Amino acid sequence: MTLTRILSAVFLLGALGLGFMLYRSVDDVMQEEKRIAATEARIIEKLQMLRDAQIAYIATKGEYAGNWDELREFIEDGLIWIVQRKETTRLLEYGKEETTVSFDTLGSVQVIDSLFNERRYPNFNLETLHIVPGSGGLAFEFFSDKIERSQREIGVFEIRDPAPINPKRRANNNEKALRVGSRTDSSTSGNWE
After folding, report:
1. Which DSSP string do the residues of the chain spell out, in sequence order?
2. Residue 61's pLDDT is what?
3. What's the rounded Cα separation, in Å, for the pair 48 and 164?
4. pLDDT, tens digit (0-9, with 9 covering 90-100), for 6-56
5. How far apart are CA 97 and CA 94, in angstroms?
6. How far apart are CA 169 and CA 73, in angstroms?
7. What are phi and psi for residue 125, nearest 5 degrees?
């Protein structure tokens, strides 16, 4: 073999090695992005469940749950009342209408059976609902308070991921961490929506 053939073989092997390393690095990045997306989807699902529980909590108790223990107890033992609303309208002599609204309580249903039934969430586990998926056991941060808007107090809540796995969400002291609700507004939206 001549020196040219030996160098060609070495360069070919080097090029194949570099091509494989490039493929592996791109594949690793894509696999990591898929893992982050799958984990964030699980986090969003839990945040949606926690939001549903907070909405039921405020409808029943008049304020948001300030911590996981309060919310957990409500999910386990709380009731959602089934209320029927009826409106009757009658025409008065001078052409105006009078509407009467009446409410009738038909019964109640357990919060856990109503919001987290097996049909809706087949793998629901109350014991791990407050744990952030992919965090190694870290719990969501809970916040609730009352703020003043237009001379009245309204309840606010926020539930957020304290340590995002997505590097883009960790910027500026976890400013873009996945969360539902708001500390400064009466919103129940998530920042992914």
Report:
1. --HHHHHHHHHHHHHHHHHHHHHHHHHHHHHHHHHHHHHHHHHHHHHHHHHHHHHHHHHHHSS---SHHHHHHHHHH-EEEEEEEEEEEEE-TTS-EEEEEEEEEEEEEEHHHHHS-TTT-TT--GGGTTBPTTTTSPBPEEEEEEEEETTEEEEEEEEE-SS-SSTTTSHHHHTT--EEE-SSSS---BTT-
2. 86
3. 17
4. 878 888 888 888 888 887 777 777 888 888 888 888 888 999 999 999 988
5. 9
6. 31
7. -140, 110
What would the two tokens of residue 129 be?
Answer: 């609902």
Vertex 132 angle, CA 129 and 134, to 5°: 125
Q: In this structure, which amino acid lies at residue 59?
A: A
What tokens does 106 get?
């038909």
- Cβ atoms within 10 A of the Cβ of 25, count? 10
